[in-house]
């Protein structure tokens, strides 16, 4: 999911640009920089292959699989990765998961811009077919708390979380490793904010907390189901407490 950056934080964030790799913006750069150097990686839902190409150009992977269910996207990916394919360092595959890749070969799986339900289903299917990457990097388009909870249930631990600004929106990157990292989520703040995000500092956290408070406040006002309203209030209370604790209320 992405969140609109509150207007009063835009100048502060623009003065602290995020690191970028050649050919991609801050969001995908944050994903790429979470991929261990020298990995055999798979970019699931690779679209036109820009992230996969950037990983090759930066020397972060020794081999990249780019997969997508769209024929049009794969045509673009083949063009973007033509040199890597020719050199035997890349392959483009039709599918929405690990199909066509040897079980046990992939070190790092990437799911960027995919909804949490779809991304988690892809991971579960992969695990069932013998694919258990050491590291999995998510940049989900919603449901970050579901990703945290389910990945821990699957035996992975949370090793990093990052907020990144691109344009006028904020995105979140979540990184998990098999059998290590944070293995439990304590309370509402860990589940819905994240143990690493909640301990961060600076304008990115402040902007995100402001945006969350506004969004959750609107949901509370519009909720018609009592149970749903109670959940939104609980999440809003955790955000408010964190804003007060970090001094980010403006």
UniProtKB/TrEMBL annotation:
Transmembrane segments annotated in the record for this chain: none
GO molecular function, one term: tRNA (adenine(22)-N1)-methyltransferase activity
Matching CDD domains: AdoMet_MTases
Keyword Transmembrane helix carried by entry: no
Record-level GO BP terms: methylation
Top-level taxon: Bacteria
Pfam family, any one: Methyltransf_18
Keyword Methyltransferase: yes
EC class of the enzyme, as a word: transferase
Keywords linked to the UniProt accession: Methyltransferase, Transferase
EC number(s) recorded for this UniProt protein: 2.1.1.217
Annotated protein name in UniProt: tRNA (Adenine(22)-N(1))-methyltransferase
Originating species: Saltatorellus ferox
Classification of source organism: Bacteria, Pseudomonadati, Planctomycetota, Planctomycetia, Planctomycetia incertae sedis
